[in-house]
Amino acid sequence: MCEALRNKFNIPVDHTLVQTGTKWEQRKGQDTDLTMYDQMDPEGNIIAKYIERDSTSMYPPCGRSITYELVK
Length: 72
Fold this sequence. Notes:
This protein has one helix at residues 2-8; strands at residues 16-27, 30-40, 46-57, 64-70. It is mainly beta. It has one domain (3-71).
């Protein structure tokens, strides 16, 4: 999913996306996986932080959505 994140926020190809954590939530009929990323420049400085939310309904028709959020 890093490529979708890279495309959505126009992250330069010389910057790296580093996965920094994951979390799982289940509430209100949604099963949500959260993945956190840091955007690093070529020198290793953190430029931005992002969260990817992959949410699936636990009830039919079991729809799915993936969203991205800039947090810093």
